[in-house]
C-alpha cells in the first residue's frame, strides 16, 4: 500500500490514523484491517465515492468499524451490483449483435469474393 493511497483514504474520511507525538501517522491493526476492506471493495469495482458514503465512518484510529457492516451499505453495494449487471447485459447484447453482423458480412464476402 502506497503512502499516497493511505493519504487519499484519509482525505476521503475512510480512515483516521492516530498520530505519534512527532506527527507521524500510526496505523493500528484495526486501521490496517479497514484499509484491506477498502482495497477489496475498490478491486471489486466500487468507486471511492460510494465507499466513502456508505461504509461506516471511523471515529478515531483505534476503532475502524470494519466488523459492523450496516444494512444501508449492503443495500448500496447490491444496488451498484445490479446497475453493473444491467450494463453487462447491454454490452452482451451489443456484442451478440456485432457477432451476428460479422457472421453475415463474412458469408456475403465469401459469395462475392474473388
UniProtKB/TrEMBL annotation:
Transmembrane segments: none annotated. It comes from the Bacteria. Keywords: DNA-binding, Plasmid. GO terms for molecular function: DNA binding; DNA-binding transcription factor activity. InterPro entries: DNA-bd_dom_put_sf, MerR-type_HTH_dom, MerR_fam. Pfam families: MerR_1 (PF13411). The keyword Ubl conjugation does not apply. Residues 1-57 form the HTH merR-type domain. This is Putative transcriptional regulator, MerR family.
Amino acid at each position: 500500500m502506497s503512502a499516497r493511497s493511505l493519504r487519499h483514504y484519509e482525505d476521503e474520511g475512510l480512515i483516521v490514523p492516530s498520530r505519534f507525538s512527532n506527527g507521524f501517522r500510526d496505523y493500528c491493526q484495526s486501521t490496517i484491517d479497514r484499509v484491506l476492506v477498502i482495497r477489496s471493495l475498490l478491486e471489486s469495482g466500487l468507486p471511492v465515492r460510494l465507499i466513502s458514503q456508505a461504509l461506516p465512518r471511523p471515529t478515531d484510529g483505534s476503532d475502524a468499524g470494519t466488523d459492523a457492516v450496516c444494512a444501508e451499505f449492503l443495500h448500496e453495494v447490491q444496488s451498484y451490483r445490479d446497475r453493473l449487471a444491467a450494463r453487462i447485459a447491454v454490452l452482451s447484447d451489443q456484442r451478440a449483435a456485432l457477432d451476428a453482423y460479422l457472421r453475415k458480412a463474412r458469408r456475403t464476402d465469401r459469395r462475392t469474393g474473388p
